Amino acid sequence: MKTLNVQNIVVPIDFSKMSVQAIQIAKQLARRFGASIHLAHVRQFNYAADLMAPVPPMVPFAFTPYEHDAARSVLKELEEVASECGVSSASCDVLSGAPPFDEICRLGQTIPADLIVMPTHGRTGLKHVFLGSTAERIVQHSLCPVLITRGSAPQANHGSRFRITTILVPVDFSSCSREGLEYAIAFANEFGAKIILLHATYLGYIYSTEGTALYDIPGLQKAARKTAERKMRELVRSVNFRAVKFATAFTDGSPVTDICAFAKDHDVDLIITSTHGFTGFTHVLIGSIAEQMVRHAPCSVLVVPSHPQIRAANLAKSAGATANTLATRQRLQKSAKGTTLTRNDRKARSAVSPQSNSSQLR
Hints:
alpha/beta, eleven-stranded mixed beta sheet, 11 strands, disordered C terminus
């Protein structure tokens, strides 16, 4: 059985009430595992390059002094939050860059972090389409497990104990879900919790081009359930649960809907799931059940990442793009001091915005 080794916990802070509450949960986990807590805040710049007035070539403007002073002000505020919550101010990081999830994931890789603890604002509908979710993006790109806490849940209240008695583990019998199960067993063993393994035998939508075909849907569902029960028995026999108590369950509906409904009906304290790590166009088409659970689950969700090598490569590629942007800006600022900008330089100036700056204050 896998043994949990949690030494560093990162807590992203946006100074909202929910993010401060996440510190309390992180503190309790840190005490249990003997881990250190690192608070991180990402300063975002919302200056759209195409909405800014053009800068005359002979009038230089450097953002560095402004960014430095603003970052120190935010660092001071972050240290005050750390002091109020009983966290060492030496572990406070102010990051400047965009997007925020990229900065947090890169910080987690640098420390390196064993767990990221953060809340989600739970945006749905049009708000989610336009604003997105930093929590979901961190779940998609983080190299370490991510615990998404629920602000409205009893365990997220300030000063209350983070109690874990029942853990729900969705499984689809893939190698990724097996990794999530092994992590869940280690987590349950640490908290003395029981595990419920849940599989959704979802058949999807059945279409008929002519509208005359007849489907034995109950028969298909029965066959799918029989296959799922066989695979569940094989999975249970191949995994070492040791002293952790467990049970199995099945549903026939949409995975996300049924998992969230099951968690609510059975008073689940935590959902632990893995992610298949879809990226690019595949992620757009298929999406991620883990990310959807982060958005809709009635309780906290702990997501165990898969394919860490691919995620690390993506972070390295992102860091390279950021370095190229910084080099371009430095060249433009140097040119603005007394040299007429070329056509390519003016085009590059319009493409570079303050969002691309990535720096860290400790």
